[in-house]
């Protein structure tokens, strides 16, 4: 039986998207399904570069159609940067394997500085390369500095003719082996400070571009490369000065979102496989899924996965409706990166606890999912970096709401061009939000939503009466626990907004908030044990541990949705 909330390759038809988008997404699914599971598994284990997938994408014009803004599409009405359909493709690619998603993801990142640039020659070249089927790369991080863009050692020396000669290395750069265009961040050797930053376009095929190696033991190619006296012409320069710094951060703002949908796709495929295996296995004369602890783990995994999808789908709307006067997406973006991807790890762990040794078998998809799901929380900033970013929004979000028009569901075929004119990457603490309580009030009749709302109100009371003092504000270990509590409130808000607009089954929604009540209680217990917590904060923490409202009939109805996944999908051999 097919679950309408989960991606199902055989029944997928995104009716809310335009005809061309639907055709290309369907073609992508059909390519993987025709190729089959054996080829998918064998190429993964052989660490085989996915040239066949890139050939398919080039032949179909997949990346060119999805990743060329309308302004650069030469009047092709199907070309646009559409976050809704990009999210759909990202989920599909994650469903079949992280490597296929990764080559797409780093192409997104590589294009970010280009589409933010006012350089017409570079933009035209990028559009032409996409039409030819090329992928792109994002040359930001370095071996000695990671993604610390304040400390880049990629040096550009003026050549006296309006250009530069670039020398230096980049590390952990996806697609760096074949990228037709690599957006490279560096600094001028003759200019100190932010004014010296430069973003420029390089070509991996140039003789002065030296590919050193693949730095990971995987199917994907994550390169180390060096530029040796590489000629950077004036038409190759994308950004200079502080604008180059802003382009780096704003590119990550765009590309970071894709990590949540990749995580969702991985979890969906793993869930089909795990539930089918568990439901068909007999132990001690009983079906494995008849054991109470197995039902709880699988029900929790399913509810967490649905919550991931609800939050991410609603975040798409805020991205697409963003503008200079509405930058709320800058909170929801690190939430998708930090919260959704770590929830993905929990989903896979719960499934793995059920299927146990089966999860190690080489001919399963699950074996790949268990490895690959770990990477997503660690890309485009660690969990800790994104939690620290989320904390910047907390005062205005909790205490100073303002009115906004309701953001509608956005699946219209529009070009999300604001993402490439985000402006200076600062002022996060000044961004205002609509009242988070409204979404909770609309669902206050659900017992666990009401119980979680008590905990959320308690967090507001804690911060009003016993806010972190100056010493605690310098203690990131302490603050990150506060950040986890706050993140749950934001997570719940968008889940409720999406549930309201889609008419989500109330049993399932209350089961999701059963989880959130437990999660809040877990972080409150952690806060109680922190050495930095004051007596008042520790007392608050214990006072806000809550038991979810138990409803055995509700949980049984949600369990039936999980049981119905058994045998619902298996990839063609």
TrEMBL record:
<dbReference type="InterPro" id="IPR036250">
    <property type="entry name" value="AcylCo_DH-like_C"/>
</dbReference>
<keyword id="KW-0285">Flavoprotein</keyword>
<dbReference type="InterPro" id="IPR009100">
    <property type="entry name" value="AcylCoA_DH/oxidase_NM_dom_sf"/>
</dbReference>
<keyword id="KW-0274">FAD</keyword>
<dbReference type="GO" id="GO:0005886">
    <property type="term" value="C:plasma membrane"/>
</dbReference>
<dbReference type="GO" id="GO:0003995">
    <property type="term" value="F:acyl-CoA dehydrogenase activity"/>
</dbReference>
<protein>
    <submittedName>
        <fullName>Acyl-CoA dehydrogenase family protein</fullName>
        <ecNumber>1.-.-.-</ecNumber>
    </submittedName>
</protein>
<dbReference type="InterPro" id="IPR046373">
    <property type="entry name" value="Acyl-CoA_Oxase/DH_mid-dom_sf"/>
</dbReference>
<dbReference type="InterPro" id="IPR009075">
    <property type="entry name" value="AcylCo_DH/oxidase_C"/>
</dbReference>
<dbReference type="Pfam" id="PF00441">
    <property type="entry name" value="Acyl-CoA_dh_1"/>
</dbReference>
<feature type="domain" description="Acyl-CoA dehydrogenase/oxidase C-terminal">
    <location>
        <begin position="245"/>
        <end position="392"/>
    </location>
</feature>
<comment type="similarity">
    <text>Belongs to the acyl-CoA dehydrogenase family.</text>
</comment>
<keyword id="KW-0560">Oxidoreductase</keyword>
């Amino acid at each position: 039986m097919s679950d309408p909330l989960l991606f199902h390759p055989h029944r997928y038809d995104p009716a809310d998207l335009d005809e061309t988008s639907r055709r290309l997404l369907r073609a992508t699914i059909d390519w993987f399904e025709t190729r089959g599971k054996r080829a998918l598994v064998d190429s993964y284990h052989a660490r085989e570069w996915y040239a066949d997938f890139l050939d398919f994408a080039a032949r179909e014009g997949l990346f060119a159609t999805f990743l060329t803004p309308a302004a650069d599409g030469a009047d092709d009405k199907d070309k646009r940067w559409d976050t809704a359909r990009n999210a759909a493709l990202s989920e599909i690619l994650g469903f079949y394997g992280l490597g296929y998603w990764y080559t797409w993801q780093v192409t997104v990142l590589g294009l970010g500085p280009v589409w933010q640039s006012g350089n017409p020659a570079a933009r035209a070249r990028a559009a032409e390369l996409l039409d030819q089927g090329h992928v792109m790369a994002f040359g930001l991080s370095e071996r000695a500095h990671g993604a610390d863009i304040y400390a880049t050692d990629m040096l550009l020396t003026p050549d006296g003719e309006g250009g530069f000669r670039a020398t230096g290395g980049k590390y952990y750069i996806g697609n760096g082996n074949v990228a037709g265009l690599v957006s490279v961040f560096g600094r001028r050797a003759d200019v100190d400070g932010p004014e010296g930053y430069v973003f420029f376009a390089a070509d991996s095929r140039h003789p002065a571009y030296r590919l050193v190696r693949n730095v990971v033991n995987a199917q994907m190619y994550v390169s180390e490369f060096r530029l040796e006296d590489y000629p950077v012409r004036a038409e190759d320069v994308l950004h200079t000065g502080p604008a180059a710094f802003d382009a780096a951060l704003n590119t990550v703002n765009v590309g970071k979102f894709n990590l949540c949908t990749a995580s969702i796709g991985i979890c969906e495929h793993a869930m089909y496989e795990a539930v089918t295996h568990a439901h068909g296995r007999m132990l001690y004369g009983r079906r494995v899924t008849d054991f109470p602890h197995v039902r709880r783990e699988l029900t929790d995994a399913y509810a967490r996965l649905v919550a991931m999808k609800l939050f991410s789908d609603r975040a798409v709307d805020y991205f697409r409706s963003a503008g200079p006067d509405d930058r709320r997406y800058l909170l929801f973006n690190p939430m998708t990166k930090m919260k959704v991807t770590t929830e993905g790890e929990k989903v896979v762990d719960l499934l793995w606890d059920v299927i146990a040794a089966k999860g190690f078998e080489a001919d399963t998809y699950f074996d790949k999912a268990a490895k690959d799901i770990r990477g997503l929380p660690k890309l485009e900033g660690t969990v800790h970096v994104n939690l620290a970013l989320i904390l910047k929004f907390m005062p205005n979000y909790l205490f100073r709401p303002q009115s906004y028009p309701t953001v509608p569901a956005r699946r219209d075929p529009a070009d999300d061009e604001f993402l490439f004119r985000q402006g200076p990457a600062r002022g996060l603490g000044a961004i205002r939000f609509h009242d988070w309580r409204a979404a909770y009030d609309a669902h206050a009749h659900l017992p666990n939503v009401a119980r979680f709302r008590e905990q959320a109100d308690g967090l507001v009371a804690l911060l009003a009466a016993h806010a972190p003092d100056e010493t605690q504000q310098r203690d990131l270990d302490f603050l990150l626990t506060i950040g986890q509590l706050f993140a749950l409130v934001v997570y719940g808000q968008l889940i409720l907004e999406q549930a309201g607009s889609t008419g989500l089954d109330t049993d399932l929604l209350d089961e999701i908030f059963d989880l959130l009540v437990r999660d809040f209680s877990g972080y409150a217990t952690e806060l109680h044990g922190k050495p930095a917590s004051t007596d008042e904060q520790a007392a608050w923490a214990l006072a806000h541990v809550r038991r979810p409202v138990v409803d055995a009939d509700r949980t049984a109805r949600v369990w039936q949705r999980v049981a119905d996944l058994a045998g619902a999908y298996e990839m063609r051999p």
